[in-house]
Design a protein that fits this description.
Blueprint lengths: L1 H52 L1 E10 L5 H8 L2 H11 L2 E10 L3 H10 L4 E4 L1 H6 L4 E12 L6 H6 L5 E6 L1 E2 L1 E5 L3 H11 L6 H6 L2 E3 L5 H15 L9 E3 L3 H10 L4 E5 L7 H6 L7 H4 L1 E5 L3 E2 L2 E5 L7 H14 L3 H7 L6 E4 L6 H13 L1
Parallel strand pairs: 1-2, 1-3, 8-9, 8-10
Antiparallel strand pairs: 3-13, 4-5, 4-13, 4-14, 6-12, 7-10, 7-11
Helix pairs in contact: 3-13, 9-15
Protein name: PhnD/SsuA/transferrin family substrate-binding protein
Organism: Gracilibacillus thailandensis
Keywords: Signal
């Protein structure tokens, strides 16, 4: 009887062990199948996410203001097309084409941003605040400072030539520069001899000015005239509107004008042309003098269109980051140097409140 019971117990144990083995094997098979399904689903989800992350845009258009010769700007900024495509690709945007154009004047670029026909604009603060109903600032430029930063014109003349400094600054000044004409030299001599210029001096000179939205070429010089002589550019009887600072320097060299208004210090950018293209025998530093210096002007903007069909917050952020990245590369630095930009920092609309005050004052004076 004991043997029978022993046999039954052994048989029962064997049956239990076999059942456990089958159960574990089935569980392993089911787990393997489940893992395979999870991996497949994860791969599909990853592919879908990648497709969603990369967005395609046929064209991004960029407008530049003509503060330099338009052909020179187009040539210098050509590499920007590939640089921007590459940076935007790392940020999840595939750009088919980058279209670059130079406006006929400052207002033209502001108008195309407002209309939504240009996506991105390199525009000064003065132009931005005039068109901020249709444009939004995303970056402001930083530039190397200059060894001259005095508001006294004679200091600039005693410390020629103007040289760059290592300091990065977010503002610049506008200069009133007298040329080699008889009247230009007369005004320069008064400044360098410590004599006060008069309203009659201003009104008797021939001036070259830029568009009315140009900070250095119109707005701040107009404020300087108001503060010092109770005049504005609109009050000057002898003035000519020019399409670029290069054109103004050419006229200054020819003696067609006596005084031009420009950013500090544009003579550095026209030093070679003064003798090679404008056929002057002496250097630009020998033949020109500063007769007036404005207060600081907040730097240029990179702004985007509020009315572009493709513009949204994600794209704006990507464009913002792309240009900051580009400015950190050697090739990028070379491209943006056409505007004397050396880098970019994030900007907000309130940064240009002072510019709005300046614009409002000029408009009320005019």
């Amino acid at each position: 009887m004991k043997k029978i019971w022993l046999f039954l117990v052994v048989a029962l144990l064997a049956a239990i062990l076999m059942a456990c083995g089958d159960s574990e094997e089935g569980s392993t098979d089911e787990a393997t199948e489940t893992d395979n399904d999870v991996e497949a689903n994860s791969a599909e989800a990853s592919e879908d996410t990648e497709e969603e992350a990369t967005q395609s845009i046929d064209t991004l258009s960029i407008g530049f203001v003509p503060s330099r010769d338009p052909e020179e700007i187009v040539t210098a900024t050509e590499p920007l097309k590939d640089l921007l495509k590459e940076e935007m690709a790392t940020l999840g945007y595939e750009i088919g084409e980058v279209d670059i154009s130079v406006g006929t004047n400052y207002e033209a670029v502001g108008e195309t941003l407002s209309a939504g026909t240009t996506d991105i604009g390199f525009i000064p603060g003065g132009t931005y605040v005039l068109y901020d109903d249709g444009a939004e600032v995303i970056l402001t430029a930083t530039r190397a400072g200059l060894n001259n930063d005095s508001d006294d014109a004679s200091d600039w003349n005693e410390n020629k030539p103007t040289e760059p400094s290592d300091e990065q600054v977010t503002y610049y000044r506008a200069l009133m520069i007298a040329g080699p004409s008889e009247k230009g030299q007369e005004l320069a001599d008064k400044v360098n001899n410590g004599e006060e210029l008069t309203a009659e001096d201003m009104e008797s000179a021939n001036w070259a000015v830029m568009s009315s939205s140009s900070p250095a070429g119109y707005i701040y010089p107009s404020l300087w005239l108001k503060d010092n002589f109770d005049l504005t550019i609109a009050d000057l009887p002898n003035k000519a509107k020019v399409d670029s600072y290069g054109s103004a320097f050419a006229r200054l060299a020819e003696g067609q004008i006596d005084v031009m208004v420009t950013y500090a210090d544009a003579r550095r950018d026209n030093e070679e042309a003064w003798q090679s293209e404008f056929n002057r025998e002496a250097t630009i530093w020998d033949e020109t003098n500063v007769i007036g210096v404005t207060s600081g002007i907040y730097n240029d903007t990179i702004s985007v269109s509020k009315n572009s069909d493709k513009m949204n917050d994600d794209l704006k952020s990507a464009i913002q980051q792309a240009f900051m990245n580009i400015a950190e590369t050697e090739e990028g630095k070379e491209v943006i140097s056409i505007y004397n930009h050396e880098g970019y920092q994030e900007a907000q609309d309130s940064d240009y409140d002072k510019e709005r005050e300046a614009q409002e004052m000029v408009q009320s004076l005019d």
